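Hello forum,

I keep getting stuck at the same step: I have a sequence, I want structure tokens, and every attempt I make locally crashes halfway through. Rather than fight my setup again tonight, could one of you with a working pipeline run this one for me? It's a single chain of 199 residues.
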Amino acid sequence: WTDVLDRAGRFDLAVFTYVFSHRLAPRIDAARAAHFCQGFEGYAPHLGDFADEIDRFYRALPDTICVSEELATLCRERFGKRCAVITPMVEDRFQPIDRPPPGAVRSLLIPGIFEMYTKGVEMALDVAARIAERQRIEIVRLSTFPQSEEERRRFPPSRFLCGESPASVAATMQRMDLTVTLPTGEEGFGLPALESLAS
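Reply #2:
Ran it on my machine without issues. Output:
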């Protein structure tokens, strides 16, 4: 990516979506920069070592687009940001495929990062384990983080998908009978739930 940025020239606008994406800022020549906030990284226990970097990131980009009013309130009150709120958008690739209604649930999808408590993955795995006790079912985990030993010990899924492309995520959701996603209030909304509904 850094080679691409070096060849890209000047941008009118650079939009940073995640705390670590801002590390590329010195290599991006842009007239203006903004923050697209889909969730506050400061809530993540597994990012505790990066608390200072998260704080600097949020203060460095005052112009912010948030996906919920709760996030906008946090950004305004804690970091003095200028915020606009837009509703979450679902890509066109998340749509139904031609298949018969599933009837009995034979496949179950649990999306989200296990270590991020706001995703509710631990509770979803407990639900999956209960279902698996009563019937044969394929449990598919989908995460942007690799599977941890703690998660593997808690309940190993049939398949664990990590770092998948958006097209692969959409195709997986289209084939699932049921998605279990249990985000907390801090999460603000559940994009995987919207994507699953659209699929």
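The helical segments are 2-8, 51-60, 69-79, 121-134, 149-154, 166-175, 191-198. If your local run keeps crashing, start a new thread with the error log.
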